[in-house]
Amino acid sequence: MALTHKATVMDEKGIMQALRRIAHEIIECNKGTEDVVLVGIRKRGVPLAGRLQAYLNEIEGSSIPLGILDITLYRDDLTQRQDQPEVHTTDVPFDLNKKHVVVVDDVLYTGRTIRAALDALIDLGRPATIQLAVLVDRGHRELPIRADYVGKNVPTSRSERVDVNVKEIDGEDRVDILEEKQE
């Protein structure tokens, strides 16, 4: 099966606008940024969380803590994978207890990544709340998980893939839909 480009659903400007809007929604929902911390899920959730942090700091004139979460060992498909998973470090250099934790990821799909992130976070402390911010929600949930903040809802079929590119990792900002084609 080959993947072919079907559509570009967000460009650099669209991603920037979505993240700015999410930052404002986080401030509104939490009545400011006191006790708010951000935790980005490796891989592309980390740079997106960094951008959200910059917007929040700019808007509120504050310094929001930012952590990095590796969920590899919390995944429910570890025993089904043929390759060895690459484990990275989790770096959450602040106390999560009684904080409003905003978990940041690029795409919300089945909900399994977020379930793993919740397990990892609970191992680190007992937050007051855990909120979810995603750049793209593509549907097809397998678990009862929803995002509190969504950059863009992109209805997809299961034969499609949402491909998020960020400058920090991929050299450019854009979100594409790729489609599996029979060869």
Report on the architecture of this protein.
There is one protein chain. It is globular, with a radius of gyration of 16 Å. With 183 residues, it is of the alpha/beta class. It has helices at 12-29, 45-60, 112-124, 167-170; strands at residues 2-10, 36-41, 66-69, 100-108, 129-137, 149-153, 160-165, 174-181. The strands form two sheets. Strands 3-2-4-5-6 form a five-stranded parallel β-sheet. The chain has a three-stranded antiparallel β-sheet with strand order 1-8-7. It contains four helices and eight strands, in the order E-H-E-H-E-E-H-E-E-E-H-E. The chain has a single domain (2-77, 85-181), classed as Rossmann fold (3-Layer(aba) Sandwich), CATH 3.40.50. Helix 2 links the parallel strand 2 (36-41) and strand 3. The model has no long low-confidence stretch (mean pLDDT 93). Helix content is 28%, strand content 31%.
